[in-house]
C-alpha cells in the first residue's frame, strides 16, 4: 500500500475500546506501537525502495493490520451465509462508503444476532487483505446491533423464543443447596463488584474458584461462555455471575442466546447478581436465583449457614434444659431423703424452741429455774445425740454383719477352701445315686472346671 493510500485510509480506522484487563492492555500497547511505527514511516525521509513480491507485500501489510482491533458501525446492504462462514457488506449512512466483512459461522452463532439487509450493527474485528483477489475486508469476530430500538426488539423476540421453549419455567429452577461450600465465581478481576462480594460473604470456610472474565459489552460473550463451560465440569455447589449495573447496551452480553443456553445446562444452581434498574438482562430469567447486587448474592449464600448457627444456639439451650430436667427427675429420691432429714431436724428445733420458751418463762420467776432448765436442755440434747449416734452405730453393725454373712455364704468363697460343685446334664449332683456309668461329670473348682466320665 502506498503512503498516500494509507493516509487516505487511516482516518476511517477507529481505535478499539477495550475493557480494562491485562489482555486488552497488551492490545492497546500493540496498537500504540503500530501507530508510532507508522507515524515514523510517514515522516521518515525517502529511502531506496525495496522490491517485494505481491504475496510478500500482502503478508507484511496483513501482519501490520493484524495488530489493530477495531469496531466498525454501518448498515448491512448484502449478506451471504454459507455452511461455515458468511460475508456481509456494511454501508456508511453519511457518505455511503462500503466495506466487505468476513465472519466465521461459529462466531456469528455465538453473537446471537439475526443479520439481514437493512440491519444497523457494529462489527468488531481486524482489517485484512485477501491475497487471492487483493480485496480489503474486515474479519469480524463479534457483531452487535446498534440503537436502543433494535436492541429492545431483539431482546423481546429472544425472550419470547426462550420462554416458549420453557427455559424460564419455574419448575426448571433448582433450589439453592443448604450449607454450600464450593462456590464458582465469574466476574472481572478489575472493579469494585468482586470486593463487594468478598466483603459480604460469610466466614464459613467457603472454597471460592474464581474465573476472570469481561462483563461489559458484546466482546464479553466469548469469555463468559468459556467461563460457564469451565464450571460445567468443575465440582462446585453454586455458580455465581456478578457485575454492576448499566444500560441496555452495556448489559448486552447477558442477553446473548448462546450464553443463556450454556447457563441452562449447568448441573448446579446458578445465582445471577447483575445490578439493574429498568433493564433486566435475559440471563436473569434463566437463573435459579436472581438478585440486584453482588452483596445480596453473598447474603443469599450465607443464609443457610446463619440459620444453622441460630439453630445450634437453640439446640444448645434445649439440651441444657432437658439435661436439667433429667437431673431433677433422677434426684427425686435424694430430695425425699433430704426432706426427711430436714423434718427430723425441724422436730428437734421445734422441741428446742419449746424448751427455750419454757426457760424464758422460768427466767421470769427465778435464776434457779433458769439454771435447772438449762441443765435439762443440755441433758436432753445429749440424749438425743447419743440416741442418734447409737442408731447409726446399730445400722453400721447390721450392714457389717450382713456383709460377712454374704461373704461367708458365697459359693465361690467355699471353692477356695477345696470344695467343688459337681453337675451332670446341668443338674447339681448331691448323691451317688444320681449318676450312672458313662455319665459325664463337670466338677467346678475355684479356678476352673474338670470334666470326667463315670466308670
Q: How are the strands of the biggest sheet laid out side by side?
A: 1-2-3-5-4
Number of helices: 13
Q: Please identify, by name, the CATH architecture of the largest domain.
A: 3-Layer(aba) Sandwich
Q: Helix-strand pattern, N to C?
A: HHHEEEHEEHEHEHEHEHEHHHHEEEE
Q: Quick one: how many beta strands?
A: 14
How many domain regions?
4
Low-confidence stretches: 1-21
- The average pLDDT score comes to 81
SS-derived structural category: alpha/beta
Largest pleated sheet: 5 strands, mixed, barrel
Measured distance between first and last alpha carbons: 129 Å
Radius of gyration: 49 Å
User: What percent of the residues sit in helical stretches (DSSP H or I)?
Assistant: 40-55%
Description of the structure:
By secondary structure, this protein is α/β, with parallel strands linked by helices. 47% of the residues lie in helices and 20% in strands. The strands form 3 sheets. It has a 5-stranded mixed barrel. Strands 7-6-8-9-10 form a 5-stranded parallel sheet, sandwiched between helices. The N and C termini lie far apart (129 Å). Mean pLDDT is 81; it is low at 1-21.
Amino acid at each position: 500500500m502506498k503512503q498516500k493510500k494509507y493516509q487516505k485510509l487511516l482516518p476511517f480506522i477507529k481505535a478499539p475500546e477495550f475493557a480494562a484487563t491485562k489482555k486488552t492492555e497488551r492490545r492497546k500497547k500493540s496498537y500504540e506501537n503500530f501507530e508510532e511505527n507508522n507515524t515514523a514511516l510517514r515522516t521518515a525521509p525517502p529511502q531506496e525502495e525495496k522490491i517485494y513480491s505481491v504475496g510478500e507485500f500482502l503478508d507484511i501489510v496483513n501482519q501490520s493490520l493484524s495488530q489493530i482491533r477495531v469496531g466498525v458501525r454501518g448498515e448491512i446492504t448484502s449478506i451471504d451465509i454459507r455452511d461455515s462462514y458468511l460475508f456481509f457488506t456494511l454501508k456508511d449512512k453519511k457518505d455511503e462508503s462500503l466495506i466487505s466483512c468476513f465472519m466465521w459461522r461459529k462466531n456469528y452463532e455465538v453473537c446471537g444476532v439475526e443479520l439481514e439487509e437493512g440491519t444497523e450493527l457494529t462489527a468488531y474485528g481486524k482489517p485484512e487483505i485477501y491475497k487471492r483477489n487483493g480485496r480489503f475486508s474486515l474479519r469480524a469476530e463479534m457483531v452487535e446491533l446498534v440503537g436502543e430500538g433494535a436492541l429492545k426488539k431483539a431482546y423481546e423476540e429472544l425472550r419470547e423464543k426462550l420462554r416458549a421453549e420453557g427455559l424460564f419455567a419455574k419448575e426448571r429452577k433448582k433450589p439453592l443447596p443448604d450449607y454450600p461450600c464450593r462456590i464458582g465465581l465469574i466476574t472481572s478481576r478489575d472493579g469494585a463488584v468482586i470486593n463487594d462480594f468478598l466483603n459480604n460473604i460469610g466466614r464459613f470456610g467457603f472454597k471460592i474458584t474464581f474465573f476472570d472474565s469481561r462483563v461489559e459489552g458484546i466482546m464479553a460473550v466469548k469469555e463468559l461462555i468459556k467461563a460457564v463451560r469451565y464450571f460445567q465440569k468443575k465440582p462446585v455447589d453454586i455458580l455465581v455471575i456478578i457485575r454492576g449495573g448499566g444500560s441496555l447496551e452495556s448489559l448486552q452480553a447477558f442477553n446473548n442466546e448462546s450464553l443463556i443456553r450454556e447457563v441452562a445446562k449447568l448441573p448446579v444452581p446458578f445465582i445471577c447478581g447483575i445490578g439493574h434498574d429498568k433493564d433486566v438482562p435475559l440471563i436473569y430469567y434463566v437463573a435459579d436465583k436472581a438478585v440486584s447486587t453482588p452483596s445480596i448474592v453473598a447474603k443469599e449464600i450465607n443464609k443457610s449457614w446463619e440459620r444453622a448457627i441460630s439453630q445450634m444456639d437453640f439446640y444448645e439451650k434445649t439440651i441444657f434444659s432437658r439435661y436439667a430436667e433429667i437431673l431433677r427427675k433422677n434426684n427425686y429420691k435424694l430430695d425425699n431423703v433430704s426432706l426427711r432429714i430436714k423434718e427430723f431436724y425441724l422436730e428437734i428445733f421445734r422441741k428446742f424452741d419449746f424448751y427455750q420458751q419454757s426457760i424464758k418463762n422460768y427466767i421470769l420467776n427465778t435464776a434457779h429455774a433458769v439454771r435447772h432448765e438449762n441443765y435439762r436442755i443440755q441433758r436432753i440434747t445429749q440424749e438425743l445425740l447419743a440416741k442418734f449416734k447409737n442408731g447409726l452405730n446399730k445400722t453400721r453393725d447390721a450392714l457389717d454383719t450382713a456383709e460377712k454373712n454374704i461373704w461367708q455364704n458365697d459359693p465361690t468363697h467355699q471353692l477356695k477352701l477345696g470344695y467343688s460343685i459337681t453337675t451332670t446334664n446341668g443338674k447339681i449332683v448331691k448323691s451317688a445315686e444320681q449318676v450312672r456309668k458313662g455319665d459325664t461329670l463337670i466338677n467346678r473348682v475355684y479356678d476352673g472346671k474338670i470334666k470326667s466320665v463315670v466308670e
